[in-house]
Amino acid sequence: MTIYAQSRSGGEGTHLLEEARRQLAVGELPGAIYHDPEIFELEMEKIFARAWVYLAHESEIPNAGDYVVRYIGRDSFILIRDENGNVRAHFNMCRHRGMQVCRSEMGNASHFRCPYHGWTYRNDGTLVGVPAGKEAYGDRLNKEAWGLIPIPRLDQYNGMIFGSLDPKAPSLDEWLGDMKWYLDLFTRRSAAGLEVIGAPHRWMIDADWKLGADNFVGDAYHTLMTHRSMVELGLAPRDPQFAMYGEHVHIPGKGHGLGMIGAPPNIPLPPFWGYPEEIVRSLKENYPSEAHVRVAEKLNFVHGTVFPNLSILNVMIGRDHVHPPTPMLTFRLWHPIAPGKMEVWSWFLVEKDAPEWFKEQSRLTYLRTFGTSGVFEQDDAEMWRGITRAAGGEMARRNRMNYQMGMDHLAPDPNWPGPGVAYPLDYAEANQRNFYARWLEMLEA
């Protein structure tokens, strides 16, 4: 019996989900969820075939014919701006024999020609060329019916492009819900918007995709130990508990969450993430509300996840022990490859109209801290690999992981000006419990 059939007929993966549902109610989860083949197959079927998944930022395809190849689960899509300026996403599979028609990850093209038999498609997906078409097909072939298959759903929010494989998925607006309020903090600091600098970094980790999403949705606690050396080197604030001081916010029922962190007590840090005055003036003019300005003024570090697998990190951090901290913004995608294996996609973004000197300083900070070989990035990857290795053993099925932080002694902050449920301390795990509640809801649907 196949793994897929087992998962649908009540195999070990189903038992794990039943156990996870019981345990989550008391702030626990079974350790095996991070390396179970049946769970992975269910995630492909129930989450990644139905969710809205981040594909790209519009600045990656600014001109007619610009394209990038992106993925949802196991499916490959050509995301392109066609000759009329419309953004489209075509399933990357020839309609004749199924060969991928685009094998370059990015470029500019007016047409795509399949290397197998030469069927040729315009960049709007229309089939326009079939070698020896008259001789091979006579009048049988209707080219209009055999264009590239479009992605079922495609939409944007403030330059962020999302796609869904489910034609019946709720709108992107509904999917994001109140998370849009927080996305505005990053995407609306400037009327010019954000731009991606360079191609996204990509690397493989022998770790489950949920670990990246879990870490960013609410785990400020790990900075105390995992990133302790960065504090000692002067790349992070001198207080090892610096990530504790802030708000722990989640959007109920959606799975989204963020940690909104300010300066530690007795360690003065500049407001607004330490952005230069030009950007601070701009955000005050472009934010949609005064509440956004009040929240942003107190921020130095923000980590968050848009369910299921897009994370955002906007932090003021040192690129070395000599230069002062510089703010940087990165989007990261935890792309599932196989049980216990993911590909990380990491974009560096900055305001289009930011000063050139700042763009370069921010880029260098990103590269040295959260780029492919960044010091913070290596810390996290080692933890996630170790968790996934342990999760693949027999004992992991008996082990219960603790998600009870903040469960009894923290009450929601009634003075928080933004939407969602906020707790006045970022050492909490309400965000993770909300994330896994949504995860279970979709897997059991």
UniProtKB/TrEMBL annotation:
Keywords: 2Fe-2S, Aromatic hydrocarbons catabolism, Dioxygenase, Iron, Iron-sulfur, Metal-binding, NAD, Oxidoreductase. Residues 53-163 form the Rieske domain. GO terms for molecular function: 2 iron, 2 sulfur cluster binding; dioxygenase activity; iron ion binding; monooxygenase activity; oxidoreductase activity, acting on paired donors, with incorporation or reduction of molecular oxygen. InterPro entries: ARHD_Rieske_2Fe_2S (IPR015881), RHO_NdoB-like_C (IPR043266), Rieske_2Fe-2S (IPR017941), Rieske_2Fe-2S_sf (IPR036922), Rieske_N (IPR043257), Ring_hydroxy_dOase_asu_C_dom (IPR015879), Rng_hydr_dOase-A (IPR001663). Belongs to the bacterial ring-hydroxylating dioxygenase alpha subunit family. This is Ribosomal subunit interface protein. It comes from Hydrogenibacillus schlegelii.
